[in-house]
Amino acid sequence: MSRKIPEEWLTLGLESSCDETSAAVLRGGREVLSNVISTQIPVHQKFGGVVPEIASRHHIVNIMPVIDEALRQAEVRLKDIDQVAVTYGPGLVGALLVGVAAAKGLAFSLGVPLIGVNHLEGHIFANFLSDKELEPPFMALVVSGGHTALVHVKDYDRFTLLGQTRDDAAGEAFDKIARVMGLPYPGGPRIDALAREGNPLAIDFPRALDEKGNYEFSFSGLKSAVLNYINSEKMKGHELAKADIAASFQHSVIEVLVTKAVEAAKAAGCGRLVLAGGVAANSGLEARLREAAQAAGLRFSYPSRLLCTDNAAMIACRGYYQALSGEYSDFYLNAVPGLGLSSRVPDDHEPEEG
Prior knowledge:
Elements: E1 10-15, E2 20-27, E3 31-39, H1 41-45, H2 52-74, E4 83-89, H3 93-110, E5 114-118, H4 119-130, E6 138-143, E7 148-155, E8 158-164, H5 170-180, H6 187-195, H7 220-235, H8 242-268, E9 272-276, H9 283-295, E10 299-301, H10 305-308, H11 312-324
Parallel strand pairs: 1-4, 4-5, 6-9, 9-10
Antiparallel strand pairs: 1-2, 2-3, 6-7, 7-8
Helix pairs in contact: 2-3, 4-11, 5-6, 5-7, 6-8, 7-8, 8-9
C-alpha cells in the first residue's frame, strides 16, 4: 500500500555488503546531498581478495565515522533524518550485520521508519541518480561480482526477472581469470585495462547459452576454457600473451551480455536499456553496449563510475521508492547473505505470465 511522502524527505542510506563502508543522504528520491565511501581495497590486496572477518572488523570501525561525515557533507543533523535505508543482502553476512545493526539502532533512536534494501535492486536504482530524466519501463542488465541478470523494470515497484546466471557471475569470472594470470586484486579493472592492449579475436573462447530467446547466463565453461588455455600454453613452454588472453576473454563475456540484453529489450518492447552493477564500470562493456543499443534504436543509460561501485546513495534511492509504496521493515530485519534478485508483483497486481 502506497503512502504520501513529502518530496523533501531526507533518507539516510547505509551500505556494508562487502568491502566498502558507505553512508549517504538523499533529499527526495534523486538529490544526493552526500555519498561517503570508505574502501578496504588496500587492506585486502595482500590477500588477493576480500577476507570476510577482516572486512567485518573494518566496517565496525568505519561505520559511525562514515555516517558522521555523510551528515556533515550534507549539512544536516541526525535528528533531521526522516527514514533510514540499509542493505540487508546479498553480501558477506558479518559485513551486512554491521550496517543492519547500525540502521536499526538509528531508526529506533530517532523514531523513524527502517527500510531494508536488496543490494542488487540498489544497483539498478543507481541509474536514477545519474539520469534524472530516467523513468520506467526499461530493461536492466545487472552485472556484478556475484550476480548477472536481466530485469524488466516495469515500474518503481514492479520488476520481472527474465534470466540470471546458472553458475559463475561475470564479475566472479573476471576475478578468477585475473588471479590465475597473476594480476593484483581487484582483478576486474586489471583485465579491462590489459584488454585494451590485446587482440579480442586472437583466441576463440566459447559462449554458452547463446540460443535466441534464452536470457540465462553461464560463465563457468568460459572460465574453464581460459584456464585450460593458460595451462596448455605453460606446458608447451610458451610465454603467455596476457593482453590477448584478457582481450579475448573479455570479448566473449561482453558479446554474450550485450547480445542477450539488446534482444531482451526488443522482445519486451522496451525503448531503453540500462546497465547496473560493479562490472558496469568495465569500459569495454559500457562502450559495446552503448554501440549495440544505438544500432538497435534503444536509449542507453549508464551510472557514473562512482555509482557503479557499492555505495549508499543507490541504497537510499531504492529505499525512498520503497517508502513511496509503503514498503518498510520492522526491527526483526536481519542480514540475508544469499538474497537474490526476483520478480516483484505488488499486492494490487495480478501475477503475470512468464
